[in-house]
Write a structure and sequence with these properties.
Layout (H helix, E strand, L loop, with lengths): L1 E5 L6 H14 L4 E4 L16 H11 L4 E7 L6 H14 L4 E5 L18 H20 L2 E5 L4 E6 L12 E4 L3 H10 L2 E4 L11 H21 L8 E5 L13 H14 L3 E5 L11 H14 L10 H4 L14
Parallel strand pairs: 1-2, 1-10, 2-3, 3-4, 4-7, 7-8, 8-9, 9-10
Antiparallel strand pairs: 5-6
Helix pairs in contact: 1-2, 2-3, 3-4, 4-5, 5-6, 7-8
Length: 324
């Protein structure tokens, strides 16, 4: 199991923002992600910086830790421009970038460009076209394609990604169409649990729901002849009925991570503390979880400088087989 974190882009880079990313690397997190939104929920009226510029400067400031989005979506992105930015980020980070990507939702991003909010079916339709096109843009030097929603005309991505054949996709999905995309194009699958039981469910209800999601992912992989074990299974915490309880103590987190590891999750992602918010937690406990929890689960420390961990130019190709 790997332990990663999310750093929300709310602090100016020269007034605490840079320190958060360096702190995460010093604590030994496998990956530090950030949300790719224009604004988000209760943080809407406060500072909120762009995800890709933030990750660019984080890539320049760090050297070992992987970086990524949780998650990018079609709500305000286009595959052609996104592919160019991702290729550049993969170069700047020396092959340490992972793209978390999903179909998007009903939040502020859904209407910020002046469009009506898409229905779940419309979001799924767009994602079904967006992700395969993005895959091709990142694996082909030149591409022209006309789609119902997204097109590319002699779009070039030279020299391509540092990570070959492209940087990894962590696909957020719970529905059947998203699961099929994760099975075909993902090197990882991401979930936050079942939102239907967030308010009234129990931690046990949540684990049952997550087991069901994992089973559906396995079936989606089997349908295309892929071994589901090839995909990392990533749980972004904070959105299950457990809420902030796993971050109350090292023991609480070890119990939480152990139970979800038994389900099949290979990466747990926890939010860096933000006082007076839904992600408030004790900073000292958070540091102890980062440094002590995995050894208590019998997992070696993530703190090393090996190329395999950084995924850089001298490392081995860590990508699973890619979809056609």
């Amino acid at each position: 199991m790997r332990l990663s974190t999310v750093i929300l882009p709310i602090r100016p880079w020269h007034d605490g923002g840079r320190d958060e990313w360096l702190w995460a690397e010093q604590l030994g997190f496998h990956t530090a992600y950030t949300y790719d939104h224009l604004s988000w929920r209760t943080f809407r009226d406060g500072p909120w910086y762009g995800a890709l510029p933030t990750l660019t400067v984080a890539a320049a400031a760090t050297s070992r830790m992987r970086l990524g989005t949780l998650v990018t979506s079609p709500n305000f992105r286009h595959p052609v421009t996104l592919a160019k930015e991702l290729m550049s980020l993969d170069d700047i980070s020396d092959g340490r970038f992972t793209l978390g990507i999903g179909a998007g939702g009903k939040g502020f991003d859904a209407t910020a460009l002046g469009q009506e909010a898409w229905t779940p079916k419309q979001r799924a339709d767009r994602f079904d076209e967006f992700l395969p096109l993005l895959h091709r843009l990142l694996t082909e030097e030149s591409l022209s394609e006309e789609g119902a929603f997204y097109s590319a005309v002699e779009a070039r991505n030279v020299p391509g990604c540092v990570q070959r054949p492209r940087l990894p996709f962590a696909v957020a999905a719970t529905g059947p169409r998203g699961m099929r995309l994760a099975a075909r194009y993902g090197q990882a699958w991401v979930t936050t649990g079942d939102p239907a039981i967030f308010e009234t469910g129990t931690p046990e209800d949540s684990r049952v729901a997550l087991k069901g999601q994992l089973d559906r992912l396995g079936k989606a992989c089997a349908q295309i002849g892929r071994d589901a074990a090839e995909l990392e299974k990533v749980l972004l915490t904070g959105f299950t009925p457990d809420r902030g309880a796993p971050l109350e103590s090292v023991d609480a987190f070890v119990d939480f991570a152990g139970a979800h590891g038994e389900l099949g999750f290979t990466e747990i992602v926890i939010h860096a503390p933000i006082p007076d918010s839904d992600f408030a937690s004790d900073r000292g406990v958070f540091e102890r979880i980062a440094t002590e929890a995995l050894p208590q689960l019998g997992i070696p420390s993530q703190c090393d400088d090996s190329p395999a961990r950084s995924g850089g130019r001298t490392g081995q190709d860590r990508s699973a087989p890619l979809g056609s």
